Amino acid sequence: MAAYAPQGVLAFSLGLVGEVFAGRFDFAVCTDVPGPLRTDLGLDVRVDDGLDRLATADLVLALPGGRFREAPAASAVAALQAAYARGAIVAAHCVGAYTLAGAGLLDGRRATTHWRFAADFAARFPAVRLASDVLYVDEGSVVTGAGAAAGADMCLHLVRREHGAAAANEIAREMVIPPHREGGQAQYMAAPVPDGADDERLGAVLAWARDNLHRRLTVDELAARALASRRTFLRRFADATGSTPHAWLLAQRLNSAEELLETTDLPVEAVARRVGFTSAAILREHFTRRRGVPPRTYRRAFHLTAR
Q: Which segments does the entry list as coiled coil (predicted)?
């Protein structure tokens, strides 16, 4: 895999993709002309690979840069288009989506970018179906993510999709970040930073719920544990997670099911019970809708003993 870094590349994004991919995968950073590359912080980094590195990468990341409103270099456009044409996954987060859009790779597709630049992006690229309020959009061979830290969500989603939940969770643990946030989650929350004892209680309730997925968890029980009325709990939950308790619990159950399928030999029926589904059939229905394959097929692809 390779990350294309333009002049003025955002140092944060350069470090982020390096933290996720470098040392774990065959990963390289490339640029238009090998040599010193100036970041948005005014620091120079040396990049030894040119655009020819994209010719063999199975995953190509277009990193955001400070000159994103300028048309991307023709050579970069050609290299990105060639990578996509031969079947590579092409991805970008934040204003890196401008590069993919400038290469015509987002035309007719759903895509996202940093919410702050959504109006400008939509005006410049009317052929793109912009989803301005989500963390990332997976269109199969083309994946886009929102701004800043949402780049980590997009990268972990790619790892999870291609290499399984256990690999993504291990990377997330090392980075001390949430292992999985759904792509449809809002880019920003009304109260993104915890504020006082109420938020501490909510955090404790979420942790308890993750440890008790095998139980039938109700909103009333969660609200009682948070020492809040049902209405107040639902409001605080949405502010903190951008989701409803039902959707959040479903995502947690599926996350746990993925990891159990990868790391244990438990029968699918036992996996279903352990994560809170009443039957293997219900797990299969939700799992297939999320992953595109049933649990047994997923296990054959990602079970650790098969690696």
A: none
Between CA 21 and CA 167 the distance in angstroms is 11
Q: What is the 3-state secondary structure (H, E, C) of 254-267?
A: HHHHHHHHHHCCCC
Structure tokens at 193: 């930073």
Lowest mean pLDDT among 53-62, 180-189, 217-226: 180-189
Q: What's the CA gap between 149 and 187, in Å, rounded? A: 10
Q: Would the pTM of this model clear 0.90, i.e. be above it?
A: no
CA dihedral for 125, 127, 131, 135, sign (positive or negative): negative
The residue among 133, 126, 124, 61 whose CA lies nearest residue 96 is 61
Encode pLDDT of 24-65 as tens digits.
999 999 999 999 999 999 999 999 999 999 999 999 999 999
53 DSSP assignment: G
- Please give the backbone phi and psi of residue 259, each rounded to the nearest 5 degrees, phi first: -70, -40
* Distance between CA atoms of residues 68 and 6, nearest Å: 9
Which string of DSSP letters, residue by residue, matches 105-163?
Answer: TTTTSEE---GGGHHHHHHH-TTSEE-TTSSEEE-SSEEEE-STTHHHHHHHHHHHHHH
184 pLDDT exceeds 90? Answer: no
Q: Where are the alpha helices (DSSP H) in the chain?
A: 11-21, 74-85, 96-102, 118-124, 150-163, 165-175, 197-211, 219-225, 230-241, 245-263, 268-274, 280-291, 295-302
Closest CA to 28 of 6, 61, 67, 74: 61
Q: Hey, how many other C-beta atoms are within 10 angstroms of the C-beta on 120? A: 14
